[in-house]
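Researcher: Here's the sequence for the chain we discussed earlier.
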Amino acid sequence: MSPRARHLAALAAAGAAVVAFSGHIGSPNTFFDGDAGPYRIHVVVQVPPVVPGLAEITVRVLAGRADAVTVRPIFWRTGERGSPPADPARPVPGDPRLFTGQLWLMEAGTYNVRIDVRGADGAGAALVPVTAAATRRLAMQAPLGWLLAALGAFLAVGLVWIVGAAVREGGVPAGEAPDPRRRARARVAMLAAAGAVALALTGGRAWWNRVDAAYRRNLYRPLAVRAHVDARAGAPTLTVAIADSAWTSGRMTPLTTEHGKLMHLFLVRLPARDAFAHVHPEPVDSTTFRVRLPPLPAGRYRILADIVHESGFAETLTDIVEVPAPGAATAPHDAAAAPPTATDPDDTWHVGGADSPPGALQTARLEDGSTIAWRHPPLVAGRDAALRFTVTGPDGRPATLEPYIGMLGHAAVLRDDDSVFVHLHPMGSFAMASRETLQRRERGDTGTGRWFRPAPADPGAAPPMAHHAPAARPASAIEFPFAFPRPGDYRIWVQVKRAGHVLTGVFDAHVGADPRGGGRAD
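Model: Thanks. This is the structure I predict for it:
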């Protein structure tokens, strides 16, 4: 990575450590593993912390002989016709499989980054959803500020002096001195010029302050939610209400489904992180979701709820709730609320911590007696760390994995201070619904107009997410493309499915700082 790319990545890291978008908290960059026609590619998009801003993109061709790669950002609202032409990604000297480029992201929102690959094996393309949002103000460095102030003062004084000289000496024959009248008029002109310059500077400052205030107001903030748990007849029910005026006023696009669910919600018990649940609340009305909780132990839980808008914008909503002990009854938070909904068959939970300490090889015992193993080199913030897990059956043979909610597996990554949360799947870190939604919009399908109903499928189109289908051959390993955004301690929950049962393995990871001081990926 070039020094400039490392610098941009570090700027993004400094500004986005505590915001939540793209279905993440503290990790806005996008990772993608997939096919572009005959080519297998790995893509990392480093999103800028300001909009408009330059995104850095790297494309590694894992399989196939590629000669050229182009990248093109397609904004969700304008489509291909309103998007700029593709830019070439430059090959990296010494690594013919690695290409780098830059993308101008001019508006906040969701983009489909189209990646075209050409080479000896033909041509192919892939679409990678990327979310752009302003997350910080870039502060001006003090030396640069003083330099610009000095240059501005020099220009202002020079302008006043030029006006005075023009009035004082304009029209005076060469070799003659200006008379007192001209000198007096020059002084008056200089005073007027100084006033005009001061007025222009004052007006410019006022304009800039207004622009800055508008920018501050438009900095991305996750939707505010209120969550609570009611226990009625021994059935604790979690209610999540979106209380943000941006949602209740209708200024945001409706929601769409991700893997057939409007909300994927994770619960993690604090502070030990020794209880975990992955549930799917159902909508009660346009602002409220409700789900019956599994038999989790009592305690204080962090909730992390992933949603996707019809614009393709994905975000994570978060709150803290108190979960009562199983069988305990509490007074209902809302007496008029509907009774608990039926449990979603895809809801899962796990109680317990990691079976082995952080290290090069870690294993976790699964509920059916099988074992999931994770072998990895030392983990460093900002470096690609494909998380590869292998599952072995109780008999010691490679296990056969089944799709779970449309994917071969899911992983939830949480930093020990809750500042980083990422929901991963084998294709990457983006929401699948974002890509499906953007593909539908390219076909002219903008949805049904009802926030709680997914857009209908186009019967004449090919399935937009062919990777949802079960693998053609049995698989016993699963890999998640990722780079830990910050140093620190993380807990990882890996969920796979065997013989119709969802199994959860828990791992702890210690991530060190990059000794080179750059390339962080948050």
